[in-house]
Design brief:
This protein is an all-alpha fold. The protein has helices at residues 2-28, 32-62.
Amino acid sequence: MAKDEHNKAAEHHDNAAKAHRSAAEHHGKGDHAKGKEHAASAKQHSQTANQQTDQAHSKSQQQK
């Protein structure tokens, strides 16, 4: 179901945003090691979100 795919993509987008905010906070405090860790996590969530978005879009198009 396309709705499930959209929800999965939204969850990964949310997780990416949280990780980006956490990375920025750690970088701002000078904790660059932890900031890099969160930035890497954000990148992974962003890439997964992109894949889920593509799948959701594809499934939505098939249902038309």
